[in-house]
Amino acid sequence: MYSPSAGLSENEIINRLKVAYSKSVDCPYPPGFITNPKRPAAVLLPLLIRNEKWHLLFIHRTHHEDDPHAGQVAFPGGARDPGDNDPISNALRETHEELGIQPEDVEILGKLNDFITITGFQVTPVVGRINWPYQFTLASNEVSHYFTIPLDWLANADNYEIRDRKLPDPFPSIPVIYFQPYDGELLWGASARFTLGLIHSLAGRANEDFNYQK
């Protein structure tokens, strides 16, 4: 079984992300389903070493009515502001606002291909490394808490499955990724897709579909 924590160096991560990046846009939805303009956004996939293994850092969004992703497991990020020069500055600004991580404390390792979400955003996933432990300052109106999951666990095909999600007629169903609960946290949807996109890139399988087996 592929194990991203087994001797994978930071330079190897950078090189594998570079090889996998193709500037293409991933959209699982059928033509005509997304009617909103593609609004640019970015998220940060924060990698860190904890207990001598690579982990990914996630946030759990606060429950409130104005956020379509409220109460969900996610990565720090959001819509691009006019002052953001590019997806990286977008992701770093949002991460600072939500978790208090200073932009200079993030080492950018690469990007994944853009992804169109059901809410009409074209999201760029940015991969960066942070030191652990870190003194976080949470924006309580947006983030209820944070947690990490080992990459080894995320890369294990026994820990996730693909389910069909029915779209409104006349559109067909689409595949949605669901991970098994980890310490009570449920990772699914776009964030799960970003996660497997990272795993695929590190495994040298970026062009395979999300049903691949180890």
Structure notes:
The chain is of the alpha+beta class and 214 residues long. It has a single domain, classed as Nucleoside Triphosphate Pyrophosphohydrolase (Alpha-Beta Complex), CATH 3.90.79. The protein contains four helices and eleven strands, in the order αβββββαββββαββα. The chain has helices at 10-20, 87-99, 151-155, 189-202; strands at residues 25-26, 39-50, 53-61, 73-74, 77-79, 107-111, 114-116, 121-129, 143-150, 160-165, 174-179. The strands form two sheets. Strands 1, 2, 3, 4, 5, 6, 7, 8 and 9 form a nine-stranded mixed sheet that branches. β7 and β8 form a beta hairpin. The longest helix has 14 residues, at 189-202. The radius of gyration is 16 Å and the shape is globular. Mean pLDDT is 92; it is low at 210-214.
